[in-house]
Design brief:
With 210 residues, this protein is α/β, with parallel strands linked by helices. It has a single domain, classed as Thiamin diphosphate (ThDP)-binding fold, Pyr/PP domains (Rossmann fold, 3-Layer(aba) Sandwich). The protein contains 8 helices and 8 strands. The longest helix has 12 residues. The radius of gyration is 16 Å and the shape is globular.
């Protein structure tokens, strides 16, 4: 990893380009969503996945819980080692708990992949610009935390490589997808947390303990 790749001649961080459409790019990277157990962050990524999967029973989409997606995905991967787990979260949500990447790297479950959809904005709280729009590089942070298999996808030519990276690593993989700050798919997902939790657990064949 070249630490100077996103800096100008004065050593200052460059603002990245956001050109891909999330409505097309997210499905291209996820591929056959039925192959995964999927945990999402809130706001845009929850709608990305709910629309892609029709709010399927193997997805758990969050609302109002910033920073939890990676930790929940890690726990799920450890509890279900025979299944592939995909966390799909946004740059704002991940910035709220970026230290979770260090724990993921240390534990390094081989069945966990993380897709961070970076549009450079906080979509849940009013679309303020996030730190990534000013040059903060979440792929570099993931690599610095110790995740070996990382990618940044910011052009159509990189989508196939990013999709392979999510699936083929023998260890945690992290893919940063840079997209335009446009709206996610319009989808009225189920926001009843108890129903969603019960549905997800039933899909796993996990019952309640006394």
């Amino acid at each position: 990893m070249n630490s100077s790749r996103n800096k100008d001649t004065r050593g200052q961080a460059l603002r990245p380009a956001y050109v891909l459409d999330r409505i097309e790019a997210v499905p291209a990277l996820v591929g056959d969503h039925r192959e995964w157990l999927i945990v999402t962050g809130l706001a845009g990524t929850a709608k990305d996945i709910a629309a892609l999967t029709d709010d399927a029973h193997y997805t758990f989409t969050m609302a109002g819980v910033m920073g939890a997606a990676v930790c929940v995905g890690l726990g799920l991967a450890l509890a279900q080692p025979d299944k592939r787990v995909l966390v799909v979260t946004g740059d704002g949500e991940l910035l709220m708990n970026v230290g979770s990447l260090a724990t993921v790297a240390v534990v390094n479950p081989p069945n966990l992949a993380i897709l961070c959809v970076d549009n450079g904005h906080y979509g849940e709280t009013g679309y303020q610009r996030s730190h990534t729009s000013s040059g903060v590089d979440l792929e570099a942070i993931a690599g610095g935390a110790g995740i070996v298999n990382t990618r940044t996808v910011q052009s159509a030519e990189q989508l196939d490589d990013g999709a392979r990276a999510l699936r083929e690593a023998n260890g945690v993989s992290f893919v940063l997808l840079r997209v335009k700050p446009t709206d996610p798919p319009k989808y009225a997902r189920n926001l009843d947390a108890n129903t969603c939790r019960s549905r997800f657990r039933s899909n796993l064949g996990v019952g309640w303990r006394d």
